Amino acid sequence: MARPTSFGLFLAGGAAVALWKLVVLLLAASSASADEGPGLIKVLLALVGLTFVVSGLLVLKERPSRPRLLFAGFCLCAGLHWGGPLEPAPGPLRTSLLFFYLLVSSLVGEALFLHFALLFPKRTNAGDSRLVRYFLYGPLVAGTLLAILAVIGSKGSGTQAAGQTGFLMLHTVISNLFPALVLLLYVSYVARRKVTPIERPHVALMVAGMLIAWLPYLAASVAGWEPDPWNLSMVALPVAFAIGILGIERTRTSAEVHG
User: Where are the domains of the chain?
Assistant: First the structure.
């Protein structure tokens, strides 16, 4: 029953993300002029988000495992992220939705991504360490508490300001630190030959996907350019990882069959 349950939950999550994207685009269209619409870049970023969801679906559908579930969870969170948050009229609802969006898409998503990398393609001792789990998911607990302070604090109060500042600082650190650790880990697998020769090209593909996804964004940030057009390169990450994960799993299955 593990497969139908996990796959069904992922489909439900994917449908929720797709609905979120649709509402985001509809709200953007309603607030834009009749000639502008929601904007091509915003539509394309929503499609980038859906690419993450489809990639997670492809990885999970064959043979659910703990690493695959972690990657699929990351894909749902990333799918939520790309395309932007819901932006109803300014007020408590808008603030609550923004913090929910940042909490799930970044703090949860990046923790799942790093946890996945600690278990696949090479299972590390850190991946099963309780201390490392505190490192991975402790920021989520802290972020939730800070988000609550930011939402329920009186407008303009010190409590609200502290919650907002603390949350945004935590969000900035985690959304940059955890992906950098994944990249360094995978580069070490290739450079130090910690994976088998058959698996190495697939891991190298995943490294290439991360670099193609992140370097344009970093260049735009340093140069001070509008980041949204450069964020379209993020589509390379889920595609590269889905191909790499499935390729490694198939080589392992083939080796077991012919071994």
Answer: 2-258
Q: How many CB atoms lie within 10 A of CB 14?
A: 21
Long-range contacts (CB closer than 8 Å, 24 or more residues apart) made by 247-252: 247/202, 247/205, 248/120, 248/121, 248/199, 248/202, 248/203, 249/62, 249/63, 251/198, 251/199, 251/202
pLDDT in tens, 122-158: 998 888 899 999 999 999 999 999 999 888 876 767 8
CA distance 4 to 233: 33
CATH of span 2-258: 1.20.1070
Amino acid at 158: G
Q: Which of 166, 173, 169, 171 is nearest to 150 (CA)?
A: 166
Backbone dihedral region of 10: left (phi > 0), alpha (psi from -120 to 50 degrees) or beta?
Answer: alpha
* Residues 159-218: tens digit of each pLDDT: 888 899 999 999 999 999 999 999 999 999 999 888 899 999 999 999 999 999 999 989
Q: Which residues contact 31 (CB under 8 A, 6 or more apart)?
A: 87
Report how far Cα 205 is from the mean position of its chain's Cα atoms: 18
Helix axes 158-191, 92-102, angle to 10 degrees: 20
